[in-house]
Design a protein that fits this description.
Layout (H helix, E strand, L loop, with lengths): L3 H13 L8 H12 L5 H12 L4 H26 L3 E2 L2 E2 L1 H4 L2 H19 L4 H30 L5 H26 L4 H28 L2 H4 L5 H4 L5 H9 L2 H12 L5 H14 L2 H22 L8 H11 L4
Antiparallel strand pairs: 1-2
């Protein structure tokens, strides 16, 4: 088996070799630009890892892996427009560097380029691979739309939130792994189990992200701690707190959610104190572990040796222990 780090290097090299037409420049240059500004390349590396897991040819998995990476960056390009985000990975977003219309049209072209790459899989598995890709792409769009609806929706239930993160985040991990498994020659039951592993791991990962936004070490987490609290973002922790808070805790939480002018550090400290009063962190960690356990169970049930699956166990551990 090839290590995740080595697979990421393979993907990075393949991304750098992607060539797009020079004309019209405003259509194709933004694609090269967003692909060049970094990212961990985890999703495409998982395609290669799944192929390798079942003894397949990693080189045959490079085009569909690139398709996953191109698709992922297409969603980022359009998400940045919807969020009016000025920066992506520390660089100007496409719509800031060019303009919004360029970002929309270039993103559309990027989606097509992703499909062209995915079409390069062997004809014998083309239909099932495209079915997974189509389901994944649609789910991500559904998840993004639901997430935007949450911004205007006063009451969000925990099951609604979990379904949103499944669609927006988790299905891409599951889809990448299942496509790689199919390229590697896996049978349908094992491919489905690997999809479940990725999907459940993706949900656990997002719950861990919610926890770390409040309780993480900013140097290890890589993001500003408390950003979700300052933005009143509907995370698992906030939804659970609203569901369980009473009396003074509820009054204080309602106050901090409604106040327009505030000191950021004071708001983060106050809301965190409410979470602590309600034992929200422990509840979130319990929920996260539930999905992590479901992921490990699916991985355990794949009909391969534990030794062969070791890198996937290590990958899961690295995702779910980012604060250690």
């Amino acid at each position: 088996m090839t290590t995740l780090k080595d697979l990421q290097i393979i993907i990075e090299d393949a991304v750098n070799k992607l060539n797009y037409p020079s004309h019209p420049a405003d259509l194709y240059e933004p694609i090269s630009y967003i692909l060049s500004i970094g990212g961990k390349r985890l999703r495409p590396a998982l395609v290669l890892m799944a192929t390798d897991l079942f003894g397949g040819d990693i080189n045959a998995a490079i085009p569909p892996a690139l398709a996953i990476e191109v698709f992922h960056n297409f969603t980022l390009m359009h998400d940045d427009i919807m969020d009016n985000a000025p920066l992506r990975r520390g660089k100007a977003t496409v719509h800031q560097k060019w303009n919004q219309n360029v970002g929309i049209l270039s993103g559309d072209a990027m989606l097509v380029e992703g499909y062209k790459l995915m079409m390069q899989v062997n004809d014998a598995i083309l239909r099932p691979v495209m079915e997974v890709f189509n389901i994944t792409a649609t789910a991500v769009c559904e998840g993004q739309q639901i997430d935007m609806q949450f911004e205007q929706q006063e009451n969000v239930q925990l099951d609604e939130y979990l379904e949103m993160i499944r669609l927006k985040t988790a299905v891409v991990l599951g889809g990448a792994l299942k496509i790689g498994a199919l390229v590697g020659g896996a049978d349908q039951p094992n491919a489905d189990l690997l999809y479940t592993f990725g999907e459940q791991l993706g949900i656990a990962f997002q719950l861990q992200d919610d926890i770390l936004d409040v309780y993480g070490d900013p140097e290890k987490f890589g993001k500003q701690v408390g950003g979700d609290i300052m933005a009143n973002k509907k995370t698992w922790l906030l939804i659970k707190a609203l569901e369980t808070a009473q009396d003074e805790n509820l009054q204080q939480l309602d106050y901090w959610l409604s106040v327009k002018q505030f000191d950021p550090a004071e708001k983060v400290a106050a809301v965190t104190a409410i979470y602590n009063n309600l034992n929200i962190k422990a509840a979130a960690e319990f929920a996260m572990q539930k999905y992590a356990s479901a992921a490990y169970e699916a991985l355990n049930n794949i009909n391969l040796s534990t030794e062969r699956k070791q890198y996937l166990y290590e990958f899961a551990e690295s995702l779910l222990n980012r604060d250690k």
